[in-house]
Amino acid sequence: MNRVVLIGIICLAMLLGGCASEQTAETQDSPKVAPTARVEKPGKQPKIMYVETESGRWMIHDINRPAPPVVTPGKACGDAPADSIVLFDGSDLSKWADRKGNRAKWVLGDGYMESVKGSGPVQTKQKFGSCQLHVEFATPEKVTGRGQGRGNSGVFLQGQYEVQVLDSYKNKTYPDGQCAALYGRAVPLVNASGKPGQWQSYDIIYHRPTFKDGKVDRKATFTVLHNGVLVQDHVILEGGTGWQGPHAISQYELHGDKGPIMLQDHGNPVQYRNIWIRELKD
Question: Does residue 14 sit in helix, strand or coil?
Answer without folding.
Answer: helix
